[in-house]
Description:
Chain A is of the alpha/beta class.
Amino acid sequence: MSAPLGVAVLGTAFMGKAHSAAWRNVGAMFPDAPATAMRVLCGSDPERTAASARILGWQEAATDWREVVTRDDVQIVDICTPGHLHAEMATAALAAGKHVLVEKPLATSLAEAERMAAAAQRAAGASMLGFNYRRVPALALARQLVHEGRIGRVRTVRAAYLQDWLVDPEAPMTWRLRAETAGNGALGDLGSHVVDQILAITGQHVTGARGALRTFQQQRPGPDGPEQVTVDDAAWAQLELDGGTVASLEVSRVATGSKNALTIEVHGSDGALSFDLERLNELVVTEGRAGWPARVLVTEPTHPDLEAWWPPGHVLGWDSTFVMQAAALLRSIAAGQAPEPSFADGLAVQRVLDAIERSDAAQGAMMPLGDAR
Amino acid sequence: MSAPLGVAVLGTAFMGKAHSAAWRNVGAMFPDAPATAMRVLCGSDPERTAASARILGWQEAATDWREVVTRDDVQIVDICTPGHLHAEMATAALAAGKHVLVEKPLATSLAEAERMAAAAQRAAGASMLGFNYRRVPALALARQLVHEGRIGRVRTVRAAYLQDWLVDPEAPMTWRLRAETAGNGALGDLGSHVVDQILAITGQHVTGARGALRTFQQQRPGPDGPEQVTVDDAAWAQLELDGGTVASLEVSRVATGSKNALTIEVHGSDGALSFDLERLNELVVTEGRAGWPARVLVTEPTHPDLEAWWPPGHVLGWDSTFVMQAAALLRSIAAGQAPEPSFADGLAVQRVLDAIERSDAAQGAMMPLGDAR
Amino acid sequence: MSAPLGVAVLGTAFMGKAHSAAWRNVGAMFPDAPATAMRVLCGSDPERTAASARILGWQEAATDWREVVTRDDVQIVDICTPGHLHAEMATAALAAGKHVLVEKPLATSLAEAERMAAAAQRAAGASMLGFNYRRVPALALARQLVHEGRIGRVRTVRAAYLQDWLVDPEAPMTWRLRAETAGNGALGDLGSHVVDQILAITGQHVTGARGALRTFQQQRPGPDGPEQVTVDDAAWAQLELDGGTVASLEVSRVATGSKNALTIEVHGSDGALSFDLERLNELVVTEGRAGWPARVLVTEPTHPDLEAWWPPGHVLGWDSTFVMQAAALLRSIAAGQAPEPSFADGLAVQRVLDAIERSDAAQGAMMPLGDAR
Amino acid sequence: MSAPLGVAVLGTAFMGKAHSAAWRNVGAMFPDAPATAMRVLCGSDPERTAASARILGWQEAATDWREVVTRDDVQIVDICTPGHLHAEMATAALAAGKHVLVEKPLATSLAEAERMAAAAQRAAGASMLGFNYRRVPALALARQLVHEGRIGRVRTVRAAYLQDWLVDPEAPMTWRLRAETAGNGALGDLGSHVVDQILAITGQHVTGARGALRTFQQQRPGPDGPEQVTVDDAAWAQLELDGGTVASLEVSRVATGSKNALTIEVHGSDGALSFDLERLNELVVTEGRAGWPARVLVTEPTHPDLEAWWPPGHVLGWDSTFVMQAAALLRSIAAGQAPEPSFADGLAVQRVLDAIERSDAAQGAMMPLGDAR
Lengths: 373, 373, 373, 373
């Protein structure tokens, strides 16, 4: 048995906590994957980082990420910091020969994303982007069924990601609502997941995109009075794919009553699929032209990534996707294969989001994406 | 008690049968509305029309519609013929001083629709367009809740109308799939209902539209070999409304597994609504920003048009909407008020559909609709 | 073409209205069935009956049921009066050589029910009991699937019929809540439908029954102060069937939030079915031991009784079941066959209900039903 | 900060794995609870236990449970072995002054359960029974709403726990299907959870029980030919509670298409609740007599045990209930309070199950439970 792979997580907020849970559990749920050791949690505040490290199961805490990414006892660097820090940290870690996992979005600008994808291609270490919804077993099953041809040629995808946390006009201003810190709003945060799923499930590439963005609540209370919101509350887009599929998507942070409703409907020439993240363990499958929608509880050992999980009918939570993501990275490292999704996959998504923004600026006209792969 | 209003139905196919059922039942379900007499059913084939008239409960059968629309014992002319005949028949009936009900679509061209709306405005008789889904009690309740402000300002509407009857590539060519006879495809047939609902529920007017059409199956078998399909199988659009709402819609005749799925989600600043025609008796209502989606079974006597129907929990069928539609026309006639929806409402819908087609031809660019009301 | 069969309906209340709708529409929806004429509506109040007759489409009104059931121009007597009148009216009509349809329950005592079943057996005319839910296409499909062996041997049925109209303790006293007028409460009113479905779907006979009744609200306001409720608000039972199936059922009039929720789950050795009357057009079908529950929209022309109805996806209402029931009676008359369900079927149900009441009195002990067929 | 509490888990199978996950994660999800250290995993097979201990995160492995339960560095003994070992292990651990968590069922006989409850009462250490579904946030919310009177007086509970793993007649014989090793079948395994929920949600005590058991598949293949199944495949019961509630329950291991469907419907005088374990994150709440069923996604920080979990809409898995269970035990220890559910709660459940079995033997007659608390 070889030595365990040392892991460092950069970032101690929501995603740092979720990724820590993944590293804490991956060995127990996927004992066949390479073993890991939770070496170090890195954050900006020394005291809070130390407390988090202890609670979350890390051997050490640190505050200097540059030092962390070059440590000899660290083989995997898992980046959970805000998006504008991803590029610098990831390229440094790759340059130091580490395997790198970057929480989505890949970067906050297309230029950065392109540099990161190029760096990943050159690097010796594995690189992976944290689109964790690829690991939702029901979505992985959807992808598998499409790729096996079980629903025929995919004609349309109808997708949405609806949340409600900005419904209240008095919800305060944050960095997420400023273009300079967040890039964009619902489009980037929610739309990136949707676009990645469309690409993953269809296995196609986007050839053209059009769309629109809207900010319903233009001002929100800041500490010193009303401030201007400079990102979108909601966005709509239509994508044309090179396999003939047309996909539509809608994302919103002002969708009253929807908490975390990533919904995807796939209509093929010989069947259909539908999914709702609020019912993470279910995939509705229609097989054949005259079939009826069947509710599959995706908890069987034959379903993707579930061979070693709980017995059938024992449902999984959102956090399990991070455990599966960690396992996928470890298995790729062991196999010497490039993990999925790659930085290039993240770049493809970002190109689509960029085209949607350009289309919005051009009154909705179609933007071709000849090189969107 | 005054003499009953004599009714004539033009057309003996699917819609003629559905409207006949309405006239057969409206007196029993809405005894407060003016009484009617089922005078004459008019069709092109003498024998078949005679048989249908007998079965469907008509006193007489006829084949000459021009004669029928001027009969003294006919006060209401109900037009259920194919769309390209609507304009001539409706204007003739209005000119003869009759009340007129026209099955949707109003007409097959914008010019015709404008002439019909103008004729309706001039006429002494009442004129009504048969958007029967306005009478679905759950949709009428949705409209009422929005107009009462129960969900606040409407920010977004997400709608679709998905059917599957063209999924099979071997489904044969018909007049519905040729531009010259049908005008357009899913957009007109299904999209007209969706746009009318968006207008009715929000109470707003469309100021701009963009969209796209797609024909997935370009050829279908005709009697003498493959023929070219010249209408859309599916369409997408985004509408901007003058009250600040953004609406998106998707329609399809190739949506495997969806039989008659007109779905509408309305997100307001203080609540949300959602509806699915396959569950015609239900409206999902979220009240307040922190509310949860409640499934309302719309069969209570306090719900729209249900004061005289069956007891709570005894669900209604699709055909009941035609009974309610007939009652609405009769009540408007009795009250001397213009019935709803009017030909002008139908014209507004047609202008939106026309803008969507023009946007499709212009690569999706926004088409302004300054006068869409 | 032979002369139409003359129909008389006895009773002008809720069921009289529902059955009138059936006779008004059966010819249009089932043109292959024998034609009928709506001869006479019979009620106790001359004025109200005359008004109802006019509104509901009857040629005449009458108040003397004994005269009506012997009229030469009446071939079918449809009895919609309160249960305690059924026996006398039905036997008189059968004695007069008429075909008879009796709204459920067959009678209010087992002795009466036995006499009626015997009279039906002797009579020349057809006799049918109005368990209209047998005509719900989804339930008819359930029965068909079971009888075809599509879900294997039926092991268990889990059924309930839950309503909420007595939830309010201030809901007033009525004849339905007195044992002397109503016989029993939820057990007879709701349980009779449930037991009939269990028998129809399984095709088996009950060999033993146990159960319990409960009156949660013992007193309710009457015109002169509180009165004693002498029937059950809710009941539970377990049935053993001769094919090895065990069925459980629960009925309630105090089930808050349930309007008309007749739910039936059937678990077989090779599949399962489930149904909810509030979603009348749907049957959930699980085929095979490893199958998943598929939601079938029971509106296809291949589904029971739907060959001549609306196109797929156009849902049916509760009232359509009465149209189908009338058609079934007419077709049986035309074919010279005994209609289903028969008075004997109603008697079988009543024997089961009686055994449940006896079991309740005996602290829940099993009551054998050797002759329950 | 005091020293962490040392934990030992006895048992390495399914439940040992689930409980290990709880101890691995409780500190991260509930940092306010006392800290723990995963001292030792104890199993019968030295090699397999060592491997499991390493994978699951334990410091040590052991095979002698008697030695483990007296170790000085162990303060909490968590018993996950088969039921017939619970009594001896738990009483030994309690005698050694440890806190004890016992996976359900408490014991395999009523006598043993009584001895364990008595031992727990005398012991200095805390004792808790692992009815983990008490920790399902939606069920905890159900209980809270009932106890706050939000749905008024509970009139009826309708519950079921349906699984399908014995549907196949060729499913092999196991110790779970023999009375001598398993006590009983579906009744004990599934019914215990259901009865515990009925007691917890209503807060009442059972005064009488009746029921029936059934073995549909009497023989199953063993290594040397067909063997006799001596436990029930399915069971039904009706309970009377001292607060006036009537509860019905049905459990089955042959319910085709149901994987893990613990469903509970609670009908009160002023509202209703319903739950399905296959949709673990949802509770359907009807408030008021005229309310409608609202689907609450139980992932809000204000919901039970969720203040420190993931953001709203990020659903939890089945395994999270064990984390919450561990936290509840730790918080009780810290507060010096008796944890819930206690051994006495487990004894109360077992008395009800015993009465159901006695009723089955007595043809379903009601068995009084005067002392069932």
